[in-house]
Amino acid sequence: MDFEYLFLVVSFSASIFSALFCLVLIALKLLYTPLDYFTKRLSIVLLIFYFISIVYNVTILFYVFDLPLYWWFKALNFQTVLLIPVLFYHIVFKLSRLKKDESFNYYHYLICFAVGIFYLIYSEFILPPTTTLLGEDTIKNVLFFDNGRILARIVFNTFYLAFALYRLIRYRRTISDYSSDESQNSLRWLYTIFIIVFLLYPGPILFYMIPDIKHSLMFGQLIPNFLFMFFSISLCYNIFSQNFALVYEDIVEDNKKEENKKGSSIDKVNFENYIKTQKPYLNPQLKITDLLSDLMTNRTYLSSFINTTYKMNFSQFINRCRFNEYLELKASFDESKQEEVEIILASGFTSYESFKRTENQYYGKNNWIPAVKTPF
Q1: Beta-carbon contacts of residue 278 (< 8 Å; ≥ 6 apart)
Q2: Residue 93 vs residues 118, 138, 253, 340: alpha-carbon distances, Å
Q3: Euclidean distance between CA atoms 222 and 63, whole angstroms
Q4: What is the mean pLDDT of residues 3-32?
């Protein structure tokens, strides 16, 4: 039995069928689950992403098992190579919107298709279907364009991965001063996706620069294929389970607009009295904008007040208030696992995981301060 052949088939099957499974799963959710407008559009982009991924992996399959057949799909393979990072950036863009009117610029796709069409014309009308009868100069030109091909791939991957990572960091930095539901809004799971992507990133570079990689079963095919499988499943799971919260209002506003909003200075004593008596933190989906009318101020000033006064962002402040509420409630109940979860939810936490994250962050073994009952 040819084990190398078997391993190659299994690895390609893993990458292709995982993407196909994710495509079917997202399609079924799109068809049979009522989704809002923005989530539907996100799901459609994800469907296109998986379809393009399948086409890419199938053409690479031709490259490994039937090189003459791959020649006819070389331009299609190149087009999918360019589309994948753009589609991934599009997905991250939709997940990390901070303005309700922020829209994706489709010129990214126009550039992608323009480069792909140029290569299609070059490969179909300038290059003959085989290079065996070419002269030395022509062969050098072919190899040069192949180098240009990998260069285009590196440029697209670098730019769009950088754009996507920048948007994620920007989103996480901003959302903490907007929503108290950090567990759903944080998109922390995307960092795992990026780790897998960055592990895949050097693959094509090494594949072209180091000849031994081309003939290496482990580094040339098995590892990239299984990494892509984990990437597909992880992305699908988090979006299918809606482990995100799309923004439907402006979080980032122009400074001039914010300055024109009427707002009063915040008195520390009155603010703390409002938090203690009204207990807005009991609302699991509390946003900083929910407090503005009662406090008669604007978002920028309130966020700055909390950061300056209590040395924490809005999400951290609210979750510490919830933890203090949990301590008070727990003191009046007998301890049991069922009551523990009920107390956690009654304190305003969205989940047990969110509670544990707050407990570990502020009241872990190294940070435990029993005497401190409030964040004030």
Answers
A1: 294
A2: 27, 42, 18, 38
A3: 15
A4: 86
pLDDT at 46 over 50: yes
Digit-coded pLDDT (tens) for 138-147: 444 444 456 5
What's the rounded Cα separation, in Å, for the pair 376 and 310?
Answer: 7
Neighbouring CB atoms inside 10 A of 310's CB total 16
CA dist list (Å): 62 to 52, 77, 342: 16, 10, 56
**Whether pLDDT at 23 is above 70:** yes
Reading the block at residue 155, the tokens are 């440029």
Q: Give pLDDT, residue 262.
A: 54
Say which DSSP state 33 is in. S
Going 326 to 327 to 328 to 334, the CA torsion angle's sign is: positive
Given CA atoms 238, 241, 245, 246 in this order, what sign does their dihedral have? positive
Q: Identify the CA nearest to 228 among candidates 196, 250, 202, 201.
A: 196
| pLDDT tens-digit series, residues 258-314 | 555 555 578 888 888 999 999 999 988 888 888 888 888 888 788 888 888 888 888
Q: Output 270 or 126, whichever has higher pLDDT.
A: 270
Give the span between the Cα atoms of 20 and 9, in whole angstroms.
Answer: 16
> Pick from 295, 362, 268, 290: which is nearest to 322 by CA?
362
What is the separation, in whole angstroms, between the first and last Cα of the chain? 71
Q: Are 349 and 295 in contact (CB under 8 A)?
A: no
Q: What are phi and psi of 332, to 5 degrees?
A: -100, 5
Asked if 299 and 289 count as a contact pair (C-beta separation under 8 A), the reply is: yes
The closest of 290, 178, 245 to 36, measured between CA atoms, is 245
* pLDDT exceeds cutoff 50 at 133: no
| DSSP-assigned letter for residue 252 | S
Contact at 8 Å (CB) between 177 and 303? yes
Q: Which residues contact 118 (CB under 8 A, 6 or more apart)?
A: none
- In which residue are the tokens 């995981």 written? 353
Hunting for tokens 């180091």 — which residue is that? 210
- pLDDT value for 180: 72
